[in-house]
Design brief:
Blueprint lengths: L6 H13 L1 H30 L10 E7 L5 E2 L3 H10 L3 E15 L5 E9 L13 E2 L14 E5 H8 L9 E4 L2 E9 L11 E4 L11 E6 L5 H15 L9 E6 L5 H34 L2 H9 L4 H37 L13 H27 L3 H7 L1 H5 L1 H32 L13 E7 L4 H12 L4 E7 L9 E6 L11 E8 L3 H4 L6 E2 L14 E5 H8 L8 E4 L11 E8 L15 E4 L7 E6 L7 H11 L4 E7 L5 H38 L2 H9 L4 H32 L14 H26 L3 H5 L3
Helix pairs in contact: 1-8, 2-6, 2-8, 2-9, 2-17, 3-5, 6-9, 6-12, 6-17, 7-10, 8-9, 12-17, 12-19, 12-20, 13-16, 17-20, 19-20
Length: 788
């Protein structure tokens, strides 16, 4: 290898890189951008998919869920938990934790909601952490009749107790029960969430249904063997009453959720497309750069340099370019990931966003691969030609191998750029729609919250009634969902009138609401009426309120009042659903977001079903009612929880911030790919035209007119642009058509975006041909003939 690459070759490579600053800079920019995005994207993906808890056995922590026939994840029943804990041989430990807000009443009488967790005390030995003072939970704390104890976080200790060293043994009233403080944990301890207090979870009842069952695998066990054993244990423990369609789902404790999985899949897909655009861009530029050095290669060959040495020199140049780009790209990725880690709240404590050895190895391999593909392959292809003949005839570049290969690379780059940006923008629009303004929703004066620890519909009604009694409350009600929180669509059919054709069922999102909910979120009838107390009486006639998009989609804008619709139940064994009379129409209240085709929906009144979201419309600043509302609900049930208390504009804030960040990332990656494509296409076509200066001079000397020369030059580029544009537009539309596989709603595809992107690239490409051609036309034929 020493004979192939020497220090002199490296110095020569550096001089040649500096000698062609524009082309070299374009290559470095493209590679640095691709490597930066690859480092960031695969770091995030690796952390989401492959991260582990920061404990000695952190890589063996798993979650245990049941999956029913509708693919919904359920918590194992108490008897299933006990059977798994007592009988599983593939597990070293089985525990459970329930994270939620707790209502804490301080000595001053203030009522505060504090995030915390109930956890099986035995589990604390598996999450290594030393308390600041006192002790952690121990197994005896979970035994029947044990004293009610609590461990608090250092931040709570200092915020509410002033860091009092005598905190141990003091009492805290949580819900309606006093708990003795036995320890203070450091702020770095966050299992299984980032709450501020931990209490023993009663393993006999597991504290209800809202808990997470987890376990620690025995060394050497696999998810497949564990799933098989636990599924058999589940069947033995629930031979009666449990549907046969349920099965055990075992996955990593840090495994991604559905929403994160969809977003990561979208980012990785776009990232791969970006890398393909970068690869085609770099390969094209390197090919042009290599071929432009034909005179130098001829001289080196003439003086006896072997082909291996010539190829080695070209490879060293590309390797240096790739190394410089990799350094810049990795540094940029480190800076960007560090910013993201501190800019976004709610990131799981096990996610560090630090490039790990796997990602670094990936970047190194990517750099070497780019060097091989972009350096060795063009060098081998170029040097296999008779360079002397190429130099003498001048035909090698314009009509030889590079012309065909360059055309293919150019078409591929254009097609990938259009398809990538169209797909990225389409997905970004879907994610962005979750944060867009909904005109009919109140901009303020509405407080929302998620209800926790609701045991029955009557319990919920007492909560709503307590909220209505507060001064400043105009309306209050409970609902199945809040605006913008996408409910799943259900197949819906409208009963045809006599003489009308029967219309097939179509998907429409539905929302179950309690009395007062529509009024609380600003729902006002534009036709007919909304629900009254009569509609919520047991045995009342089935009715429904639809929104304006529903009228437009299902009824063509015709009067809907008095028409009937049927909402199909997805369960095959369910009774036939009733026909519901449409009694009113409301504006679009954000029932569904994303795809405009799925904004057409409806609201149905329910009485005895569980509704988990509270909406309170006020005549004053809604945030001033948070404390009175907590106090009023504590009188109804001290253990009742109000979670995520926010104004209606802030509902679903974390999801919206996350999706907004994803949309920004997708748009940025697509825009970066477009920019690189514009620069690459401009550089390549400009270079190709410049290399034809001699041909232009000959044609002018023979009497060709300027417009004829320009047409011959731009004609070929126009064909390449048209072919690439058509392919890219087709790919972009085809990708958007596959939106059904994405769990979030994506707008229907169109042709405007691909056409706009293609027009941008076409303008850049034709400008790249026209400018150097115009310069060449101003050169005298004698000067053009000696240009090469």
């Amino acid at each position: 290898m020493g004979r192939l690459i020497s220090l002199g070759e490296v110095r020569l490579a550096l001089r040649l890189i500096v000698k062609q600053p524009i082309l070299s800079g374009t290559v470095i920019l493209a590679l640095a951008t691709g490597i930066c995005l690859a480092t960031m994207g695969f770091t995030v993906r690796d952390e989401v998919v492959n991260s582990t808890l920061p404990y000695q056995a952190g890589d063996r922590f798993i979650r245990i869920n049941l999956v029913n026939r509708e693919s919904r994840r359920l918590d194992p029943a108490v008897e299933v938990y006990h059977a798994i804990r007592d009988r599983a041989t593939t597990l070293q430990h089985v525990g459970a934790a329930a994270g939620r807000p707790f209502t804490v009443t301080h000595d001053s009488g203030d009522v505060e909601s504090i995030i915390g967790a109930s956890i099986t005390p035995r589990s604390m030995t598996w999450v290594e952490a030393a308390p600041v003072i006192g002790r952690t939970l121990i197994e005896a704390d979970g035994e029947p009749g044990a004293e009610a104890v609590v461990v608090i976080r250092d931040s709570l200790w200092r915020r509410r107790f002033g860091g009092d060293a005598g905190i141990l043994g003091r009492s805290m009233v949580i819900g309606a029960q006093p708990y003795t403080i036995v320890g203070v944990m450091p702020d770095t301890f966050q299992f299984h969430n980032s709450g501020e207090l931990w209490m023993p979870l009663d393993e006999a009842t597991l504290g209800g249904s809202a808990r997470r069952v987890f376990a620690v695998l025995r060394p050497g066990e696999t998810y497949q063997t564990v799933s098989a054993e636990l599924d058999q244990i589940r069947r033995d423990a629930t031979r009666s009453g449990t549907p046969a369609e349920e099965r055990v789902l075992v996955r990593s404790f840090t495994g991604e959720g559905d929403e994160a999985g969809v977003a990561m899949s979208a980012i990785v897909f776009v990232l791969v497309m970006v890398l393909m655009v970068v690869a085609s861009n770099v390969a094209t530029l390197i090919f042009a750069r290599t071929w432009s050095r034909a005179p130098e290669l001829v001289v080196r060959t003439a003086v006896g340099a072997p082909r291996t040495r010539v190829v080695g020199q070209l490879f060293v140049e590309v390797l240096l370019l790739a190394s410089i780009a990799a350094s810049i790209g990795v540094a940029g990725a480190y800076a960007a990931l560090r910013y993201l880690r501190h800019a976004f709240e709610g990131i799981p404590f096990w996610v560090t966003l630090e490039p790990n050895p796997r990602v670094i190895v990936f970047v190194v391999l990517l750099t070497v691969l780019v060097s091989v593909v972009s350096g060795l392959l063009p060098a081998l292809r170029v040097t296999r030609h008779d360079l002397r003949n190429t130099l003498q005839t001048g035909r090698g570049f314009a009509f030889g191998g590079f012309g065909r290969v360059g055309a293919v690379l150019l078409v591929v780059e254009i097609a990938l750029s259009i398809a990538l940006l169209n797909g990225a923008v389409t997905m970004a629009r879907a994610f962005t729609s979750f944060v867009e303004d909904i005109p009919a929703l109140p901009k303020d004066r509405v407080l929302t919250a998620q209800l926790g620890r609701i045991r029955a519909a009557e319990h919920r009604d007492k909560v709503v009634a307590a909220a209505r009694t507060l001064p400043g409350v105009v309306a209050a009600g409970a609902g199945e969902h809040l605006p913008r929180l996408y409910p799943p669509p259900r197949m819906t059919a409208v009963e045809p009138l006599p003489g009308e054709p029967v219309m097939a069922s179509q998907p429409a999102p539905g929302h179950a609401v309690g009395e007062g909910f529509l009024e609380a979120i600003g729902g006002r009838p534009v036709m007919g009426r909304i629900f009254t107390s009569i509609d919520f009486i047991e045995g009342a006639a089935p009715v429904v309120v639809v929104n304006e998009p529903f009228v437009a989609k299902f009824l063509g804008g015709r009067n809907p009042i008095g028409r009937r619709l049927r909402i199909d139940d997805r369960r095959p064994d369910a009774a036939a659903p009733p026909w519901r009379e449409i009694i009113g129409v409301v504006p679009d209240l954000g029932l569904s977001v994303g795809d405009p085709a799925l904004t057409a929906g409806f609201y149905i009144p329910v009485r005895n079903e569980m509704l988990w979201f509270l909406a309170v419309r006020t005549s004053v600043d809604p945030m001033t009612l948070v404390a009175p509302l907590r106090t009023a609900l504590a009188r109804v049930d001290p253990d009742l929880q109000l979670q995520e208390v926010r104004t209606i504009e802030e509902a679903g804030y974390e999801e919206r911030v996350f999706l907004s960040a994803v949309a920004t990332a997708l748009t940025a990656m697509g825009g970066m790919a477009l920019m690189l494509s514009i620069v690459g296409i401009y550089a390549l076509l400009s270079f190709m035209v410049t290399r034809r200066t001699r041909e232009i001079g000959i044609r002018i000397a023979l009497g060709a007119r300027d417009w004829q020369v320009l047409r011959s030059i731009t004609g070929g580029a126009t064909i390449y642009l048209l072919i690439g544009g058509l392919l890219g537009s087709a790919l972009g539309i085809l990708f958007a058509q596959a939106r059904a596989v994405i769990l979030v709603s994506i707008p229907a595809p169109g042709v405007r975006m691909p056409a706009t992107i293609f027009l941008t690239l076409a303008i850049a490409g034709l400008t790249a041909c026209w400018l150097p051609a115009r310069r060449a036309l101003n050169i005298r034929p004698s000067e053009a003939l000696i240009a090469e």
